[in-house]
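re: ur question from yesterday

yeah so i grabbed the chain u mentioned. its 442 aa long if i counted rite. heres the sequnce exactly as i have it in my notes:
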Amino acid sequence: MPTLLELSERLWTGRDSIHDPAHHPFTTLNQIDELAPGVAFYKNFSNIGVLGTADGLVLLDTGSFHPLAHRRSFDGVRSWSDLRIHTAVYTHGHVDHAYGLPPFLAEAAERGWARPRVVAHRDVVPRMERYIETAGFNAVINQRQFQQAVEWPTRPIYPTDLYHERLDLEVGGVQLELHHARGETDDHTWVWASELGVLYTGDLFIWSAPNAGNPQKVQRYCADWARALREMAALRPRFLLPGHGLPIAGEARVRQALLETASYLESIYSQTLDLMNQGASIDELIHTVKPPAALADRPFLQPIYDEPEFIVRNIYRCLGGWYSGTPSELKPSPLATQGRAIADLAGGFERLLRRAEECQAAGDFRLASHLVDWAAAAEPDSVEVHRVRAQLYTARAGHEPSTMSRGVFAAAARDSERRLRDCERRLAASEAGEEPAPGDEG
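ran it thru and got these structure tokens back, copy pasting raw so excuse formatting
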């Protein structure tokens, strides 16, 4: 089996493609390697850095909330070392990074060890509390984004130690610097172990275009993110350990990854800001701003999770609110009313469907999607509408490069498939003169 650094080398040099699902940053390799004496890296859906010290292990992130992930990450860490967990650092409060401690705590209780110290930025606690309040909402989003139904966790392991801007730690002779930076989240920490030359970025680097725009999540901070990447690069790390994806070794290569990711974000931010200052609407922005062409071939900046136009939207939201610049969208008519009016003007919803199919055949999925959604708004109980809509969004999901777009469009296809079954059941019952059986409505 190739080592994680060998896999990283193959992606960096183009021998393997980051667009291959087998090499996606979120691939669950369930593999741990020692990168240097006292430094291990566990690669799964989300990653864990492990540092060996005279007082025990330091975990940089703790893994995901899912029970299967718990067992895998615990076994992975324990295959490298059986030392007790002295300290755990949450780089941020996302449930795939800060919810993996339960098996380690159970082990500590069983073996009579002290519970580990858990260190995080002070804003991790409000995030965890918000996740409890919005558990149902986040479960829906998670299912849509990753096409997996899970029960959202509501019993976090809270940090024991909080800091504000910077915290210096010493654990068993190993010096650690914890730095706060707003980026993917407002509660983010990056960790620098200077004597080891190890930088743990958390999700400030994930082997894809930065997750700075996610359309289903709260605010991200593009400009702050770029500044943090430049601060990291100035330290000249020898190892970059990311929150997702593979480790990177070598001072020059690490510096390139950090600085070019910063340049990518800065370019999108400055283009967006310049156009906003000229009065451009969000529609103009998302169809005008492009990432720098010079970085288009970088394997660590491909739009395989987030996308540039989503980053543009998030910058606009951060700097300018939610008004799109189109007056009718400030206080819109209900979508169903709009759909019926447009269908009437077209001469019936069937004409919208036929035009949607023509647009799809020509490769114009964007316009096809508008047309089919108007038809669905006009005739929500039509078998034909949901047949066409399910087929269109299934096809569109297959053409999309990013996890986020595929998740949203695949969810739309599943929604129409469910509604199609309901419509067919009601129609069959009506034709047979029977009461329709309860369906999946709602």
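noticed a couple things. The first helix runs from residue 4 to 12. also DSSP finds 14 helices and 13 strands in the chain.
anyway ttyl
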